[in-house]
Structures are given as C-alpha cells and as structure tokens.
Design brief:
Strand content: 15-25%
CATH architecture of the largest domain: 3-Layer(aba) Sandwich
CATH superfamily of the largest domain: Response regulator
Number of strands: 13
Order of helices and strands: EHEHEHEHEHEEEEHEHHEEE
Radius of gyration: 19 Å
Helix content: 25-40%
CATH class of the largest domain: Alpha Beta
Shape: elongated
CATH topology of the largest domain: Rossmann fold
Number of domains: 2
C-alpha cells in the first residue's frame, strides 16, 4: 500500500518515511503543497498531511482529496494547536489529527488503524499464490515474473477480495494517476490471465474487475 506524506521539515519527513517503510508501506514524500496536489490521484491508500507547507496548505489539499477520494484515510500532522484549525480539519474529513511533537510509534499506530498491511497470502488456485506483502507471484514455490503494472493490478484487487474495482480506481492505482484507456486495462488483464488461473480474475460487465481468491495464513519461507 502506498502512502503520500506532505511534510516540509526535511528531518521529520525522513524519519516518517523510514518508519513507515519499516512497517511495510510504500512511501512517497513531498515538501510542497502544489506538488502534493498534483500527486493525490496516484493511487495512494493513505495521506499524511502537514498544514503549514509551501504553496498550498495541508487543509486545502485535504479538501481536494475529499473531492476525489472520500474513502481514503487522511491524517493531519501539525504544530498548529488552534482549535478552529483542528475543527475544520475534521469537518473537511480528516480521519485523525496528530499534534507535533509526537512519537513516531504514535503515528504508525494511527496509520495501521486506518491502513492495514495484510499479513496474508492469496491462494489463486492451481498452486498459484500471490504474496501481498512481498508483491510477487509464486507457482508451486517458484516465482512467476510479473511486470510493475501486473503487480499493482493484483495488489489493488487483493486489497478487498471479491469487491469489484472500477475502471477509474484501476486507472488511479495501476497507472498511478496517468490517463489510460479501457483497451489498455483489458490488455493488462489478458496478460495477467496468461500467468494465473484464468477464472481468478472476474469481469463484471460495465462495472470493473474483482479477484476470486482465498486468504491463507502467511507462511514462513515463502
């Protein structure tokens, strides 16, 4: 799962990225609000936003995020303890507000509350296992090579098995915010289906795609 961190304190930003990466998340960072605004459609599973940053403040970024992604968790981190700012953040739709200074453990706990890394493997059938944490596919304990977009596609569907993901969600996550076409999505699915049991990916006409898989306990050594 990918997280975007907006924080203009270089040292703090580095510590946050290090802690989140260690916890198993992919992390992109920026110190500039305008740059963060251009990145919000890049398929993130969580946003961590400082308020007082250059160009565009974090609350304004949160407003833009909620226009596109009402369901994606967003945590405000700020040295601003003004009650009005805190209230506005919650009214716009932040999931939590963490006042600086804070313990890194505290931030990780909040992120894990809203954006959990699944400690499970997905059984696609016929000996095919997708390792959600390590982002690779195995067949009878041998790795099956996947391209980046193939990994991201399986990762997205694995976030909520049996749920149907729309074309827009696939475009945001797999193409990381870049525009694509339904033809390209279909071509990607066709390529993946050659590498896994064909019926593992289900198509719901006019809506999107889902994955038919079973979660199994994470096994050591795989």
């Amino acid at each position: 799962m990918k997280i975007l961190v907006l924080e203009d304190n270089e040292r703090l930003c580095g510590l946050i990225k290090q802690a989140l990466t260690k916890a198993g998340y992919k992390v992109d960072t920026t110190a500039d609000g305008a740059e963060a605004l251009s990145m919000i459609t890049n398929g993130y599973s969580c946003f961590i936003l400082d308020i007082n940053v250059p160009s565009i403040d974090g609350i304004s970024i949160l407003e833009s995020i909620r226009m596109y992604h009402n369901e994606i968790p967003a945590i405000i981190i700020s040295s601003n303890h003004d009650l009005e700012k805190i209230q506005k953040s919650y009214e716009i739709g932040c999931d939590d507000y963490l006042k600086k200074p804070f313990f890194m453990y505290e931030l990780i706990q909040k992120v894990q509350k809203f954006c959990k890394v699944k400690s499970s493997l997905l059984d696609l059938g016929n000996g095919y296992i997708f390792d959600y944490n390590k982002h690779f596919l195995i067949k009878d304990e041998k790795e099956v090579k996947l391209a980046k977009k193939e990994i991201l596609f399986l990762e997205l569907l694995a976030k909520d098995i049996h749920r149907v993901f729309s074309f827009d969600e696939i475009e945001d996550y797999v193409w990381e915010g870049e525009e694509t076409t339904l033809i390209n999505v279909r071509a990607l699915v066709k390529r993946i289906r050659k590498k896994i049991p064909e019926k593992s990916i289900k198509i719901v006409k006019g809506i999107g795609y889902s994955i038919d898989a079973d979660q199994i306990p994470l096994q050591k050594g795989i």
